[in-house]
Amino acid sequence: MCGLSGEIRFDGGRPDVDAVRRMNDRLAPRGPDGEGLWSQGPVALGHRRLKIIDLSDRGAQPMTDGSDAAATGVFNGCLYNYQELRRELQGLGHRFVSTSDTEVLIKAYLEWGVQCVDHFLGMFAFALVDHRTGQVVLGRDRLGIKPLYLAPGPGRLRFASSLPALLAAGGVDTSIDPVALHQYLTWHATVPAPRTILNGVAKLPPATVRVVETDGTYRDRHYWQPSYTRRPEHDGMTTDEWRDAVLEALRVAVRRRMVADVPVGVLLSGGLDSSLVVALLADEGQRDLATFSVGFESAGGEQGDEFHYSRLMAREFATDHHELMVPSTEVSGALDAAVAAMAEPQVSHDVIAFHLLSRQVSEHVKVVQSGQGADEVFAGYHWYPRLAVPVRADAADAYAEAYFDRTHADLARIVQPHMLPGEDVSMQFVREHMATPGAETALDAALRLDTHVMLVDDPVKRVDNMTMDWGLEARVPFLDHELVELAAACPPELKLAHDGKGVLKEAGRKLLPTEVVDRPKGYFPVPAIKHMAGPVLERVREALEAPAAKGRGIFRDEYVAELLAAPEEHRTRRGANGLWQVALLELWLQKHGIN
């Protein structure tokens, strides 16, 4: 829930409250239910509120500790165990004036310092001003579900829940980072933290607490990372025992994410992952659960919806089901709105689907659970068997061969020379990550990379951006950190079984119709984009032929001309449309006023 922003001054000056107000205004869709500004000394904080827990004004932010005003904070997300923590903190002598999880977060910091995050179960990004020391503490959840962007400037640091909010404040270096561009074009638009596509904006990495001193220096605490090795306590576990352990951990994760003072729905694609969420909620006694699906008109001979399976699930568990069928003629119009909602450029087609679906869902509920993350955590994608190479040292090469869109040599004929790093920085990143201690097998290493890097800066970011643009909070039980720890320890062969997600499919057989468990792997298709249908192609051509694009000089002119001359023919190694990847970046830059 919510959006946060702020500015810290290190030069003795006062923060620019108007700049924080502009950031706050840009974050309005993330928090349509309230707003607040606070400024004291060298720090100003802004907040937009989406009311999910403690709907009263006592939950408003920025919030200052009520006992001795020792800390002031802003918070985006949800602490699913806030009620348990509240009782624990009360036992330690803390007094509360609200029933909000924000107040629990602040009291937890005052009790445990930066170790407070070790006590949290949930998704969160926060900024806390410690009035006792003058320090500002920034934090982000273990899986990076909630974002936090940073923009340093002369004598200051600004931060916000989205990159466009920082642009609204002004004073951002908007030049393109060649390393990030290399990653964007190589790694299916994944730009790992701390980088973004812009030189002037960074991201706080997941599972990180940053303590910023009054002089601008800082120190980071990286507080969580599963080992991706087999644990002694799991020795001798049978396949059935792993299945039952995974199912119980998922059940707990789903139950945790029902904590709210408003109704909670589910995004139901009809695939295994979202269907398991629905089934577990029904098993927990939920009745008349609101479920939501989206589909598109077929194009290029490709089916555009999966309604058969979502309807099957809705009937099986008697949900209050809603469908949204989007005509192809509406996709091009929806494209600009979705691009505007992107904190960073995102090329996957389902970004449009999530944006349109979120608009519909937000008319019914404020909170939904989603099946996002299961494929990365439980090895569900078709390329994972290729990553299970026998020699651990070959993991990086296998990963690049299976997942990268392009090679470094390919990029030399795509981007202008001044935008091309002198070395293969994307491959270097993967090699360094794969060489990090832990991760017993090549597949373990690949899943670690996907779960803690790719997942964070591609699928998870898409879901957060598209839902929060409509004031809708999406919760992702497959990214419960205890479930992720269990999956990381699960033997790779159990995850690869049954064409991927084997242990999860076995869990599904205890709850779901066989047709859902054994169905072919589905995706969120948007055929009008995949096949560059008329209006979408016209919008793409308009963006790439605009003066801003030509003046920017990112891509070689002859390459762009080739793409536009044959929109369907240029595919990446993974089969993605090359024109779409190039155009999406330009669309995003133009939509956010970057010239």
TrEMBL record:
Reaction catalysis annotation: L-aspartate + L-glutamine + ATP + H2O = L-asparagine + L-glutamate + AMP + diphosphate + H(+)
GO biological process terms held by the UniProt record: asparagine biosynthetic process
Binding site for ATP: L267, V294, S370, G371
Active site per UniProt: C2 (for gatase activity)
Keyword ATP-binding attributed: yes
Keywords, sorted A to Z: Amino-acid biosynthesis, Asparagine biosynthesis, ATP-binding, Glutamine amidotransferase, Nucleotide-binding
All residue ranges annotated as the Glutamine amidotransferase type-2 domain in the record: 2-215
Pathway terms, separated by semicolons: Amino-acid biosynthesis; L-asparagine biosynthesis; L-asparagine from L-aspartate (L-Gln route): step 1/1
Keyword Nucleotide-binding attached: yes
Pfam families attached to this UniProt entry: Asn_synthase, GATase_7
Binding site for L-glutamine: D101
GO molecular function annotation: asparagine synthase (glutamine-hydrolyzing) activity; ATP binding
Annotated EC: 6.3.5.4
GO cellular component term of the entry, any: cytosol
SUPFAM superfamilies xref list: Adenine nucleotide alpha hydrolases-like, N-terminal nucleophile aminohydrolases (Ntn hydrolases)
Membership in a protein family: Belongs to the asparagine synthetase family.
Protein name: asparagine synthase (glutamine-hydrolyzing)
Native organism: Streptomyces kanasensis
